Amino acid sequence: MAQINPSILSADFARLAEEAKAVEGADWLHVDVMDNHFVPNLTLGVPVVESLARATDTPLDCHLMIEDPDRWAPQYVEAGAGSVTFHVEAAAAPVRLAREIRAKGARASMALKPATPIEPYEDLLPELDMLLIMTVEPGFGGQAFLDIMLPKIRRTRELISKHGLELWLQVDGGVAESTIERCAEAGADVFVAGSAVYGAADPAAAVASLRARAETATASAAWACGH
């Protein structure tokens, strides 16, 4: 089943509790944490995640675009995140970190920037609950979807199937009604959508529409047959 994770990067930061309530039909609320070092932007940190966790019943999916996630990621679990994603490009010990996130009670996820191939990390996949393929360069919302990432999504889905893993495959960047079907057909089943949700007149209806498009595409996708 397709999961839609609205990104609060596109929400009104002055009204985060209200913006979270506006998408209560979503599966997760995607929280982009940026440190102005790993990516050239600065967003929010642990205190805001703690406040947001108290303000919504929708579980938080924290995407850490930060340096030294080995040190900081566990704090986001303690702050209330149900899923924590670290970038493999920034992690010193990704297996140890994934195990620590899981041990603290959250889902462990690893993200790959567009230029980072999946193949060197095949042996790490059983340590994860989700893998995030970035479909834009991380750091800013509202970017155009990179179609050149579709083959990478397909290869990743093939590796997941090869090992018989119950691993979610998330895409983030430029996901909208015009692109979500291609992502689903390629093998993604978790979709981060920012401006496509929060830029809509009715964010809740946008979530439902995106989910319907993704599920329709998944139903006819070769990778999902017998899945």
From TrEMBL:
Keywords: Carbohydrate metabolism, Isomerase, Metal-binding. Its EC number is 5.1.3.1. A divalent metal cation binds at residues 30, 32, 63, 172. Binds 1 divalent metal cation per subunit. It comes from the Bacteria. Pathway: Carbohydrate degradation. Substrate binds at residues 7, 63, 139-142, 172-174, 194-195. InterPro entries: Aldolase_TIM, Ribul_P_3_epim, Ribul_P_3_epim-like, RibuloseP-bd_barrel. It catalyses: D-ribulose 5-phosphate = D-xylulose 5-phosphate. The keyword Metal-binding applies. One of its GO terms (molecular function) is D-ribulose-phosphate 3-epimerase activity. The active site is at 32 (proton acceptor), 172 (proton donor). Pfam families: Ribul_P_3_epim. SUPFAM superfamilies: Ribulose-phoshate binding barrel. Its cofactor is Mn(2+); a divalent metal cation; Zn(2+); Co(2+). The keyword Transmembrane helix does not apply. Belongs to the ribulose-phosphate 3-epimerase family. NCBIfam families: PRK05581.1-4 (NF004076), rpe (TIGR01163). Catalyzes the reversible epimerization of D-ribulose 5-phosphate to D-xylulose 5-phosphate. This is Ribulose-phosphate 3-epimerase.
